[in-house]
Amino acid sequence: VQLQAFGGGLVQPGGSLRLSCAASGSGFRIAGMGWYRQAPGKSRELVATISNSGRTSYADSLKGRFTIFRDKTKSTLYLQMNSLKPEDTAVYYCAVRPYGSTWGDVEGSSDYWGQGTLVTVSS
Questions:
Q1: Cβ atoms of residues 76 and 24 within 8 Å
Q2: How far apart are CA 7 and CA 15, in angstroms?
Q3: Residue ranges, the chain, pLDDT below 70
Q4: 3-state class of 104 per DSSP?
């Protein structure tokens, strides 16, 4: 599967940014898509996921500020980020979860990830 994330950049604290991720070439059925991020010097962490049925899940610390949604017709995933804080600075990655697997399986594999996009929140 090819995943390409777009939309990163420099934004001031309190600002908004929308990331997008286009998926193509999947040889398997996709059960869900998600966003992760990795800040400098820190481990990768889950941001949000969305299943094919539209059920969403968020990291507790991000609820209310970030919204994940998906255009299934275009196989495109989005992440709307509002009220951004400097601690949101990270490389953001999109990923897909095949049917029959868990997000833990995805995290342990290199097969389901796209190249990240850098988000920098700074004044």
A1: no
A2: 14
A3: 74
A4: helix
